[in-house]
Design goal:
single chain; about 325 residues; alpha/beta; Peroxisomal Thiolase, Chain A, domain 1; five-stranded mixed beta sheet; four-stranded mixed beta sheet; 13 strands; globular
Length: about 325
Amino acid sequence: MGSGKTRKMAIRSKILSTGSYLPEKVLTNADLEKMVDTSDEWIVQRTGIKQRHIAAEGQYTSDLAIAAAKQALERSGLDGGDIDAVIVATATPDKTFPAVAVKVQAAIGASRGPAFDVEAACSGFIYALGIADNFIKAGQVKRIMLIGAEKISAAVDWTDRTTCVLFADGAGAVILEATEEEEGVISTHLHADGKYSEILNTTGGPSTTGTIGHIYMEGREGFKHAVTFLSEVVQETLEHNDIKPEELDWLIPHQANMRIIESTAKKLNMGMDRVVTTVDHHGNTSAASIPLALDEAVTDGRVKRGQLLLLEALGGGLTWGSALVRF
């Protein structure tokens, strides 16, 4: 005979709403042709990028993050007082300190709980999602505003034709809420290997040059490791959850390079019609790229409630990771 007690469901972190912001200024490949020795054909063939958004002078990472956060709040029906924590993934904060997250916290009126930034370069949103998910599963908070935001153009050498064509600015936000429903973050898988730190880095920093420096990238090595590590973490995610690629509804990858995205999809035997891509019109927005892509796909109706999403990214460090999410 049963005890009469109802079995308590495991807590998950449900994505309650999404939001995004892109700066008004659009920089096309034709514009770049006037700045450096490059061409639209060269850029599209190697990266898939046709245009990107660039923050205005005097427009900061916090401005982008706040705009995305406010949109996510508006769509959720909540107000700032309902948010227990703010986490911002960014490699380009306004200042060395305070964190961008505290500026967001003040702007949206979320006056309680922690607010901090996470820096894992282009993997930042996945890292921050893993951290936020564990906060919620531990019962420490109920709702978290999670944002990926970058003014990565501030670290670009606009005379370097190999990197200036890639990077762009923007912010994407999600509100996570504790739930006992089946929807939510199922698992996250985070990795790093510091011996590859020279492949993708910046030439400066507070304790070295005292400046932000410029992005430096060994493109060929970065591509090779991206394909390898992303394939491995995707396989790890599938095996951990005992699912097959065909059970996935959408792959939402970091938007670095169309060739890397296509390679990952091919290894999953996924058609590109099941892959969310924004790299052609967003460029590489680093930690902002996955939440921006997610918001676009949710807003236009492609991603629907109950669907199974695989998010994955690789960035400087090298850092990489994935998340399986039931939206």
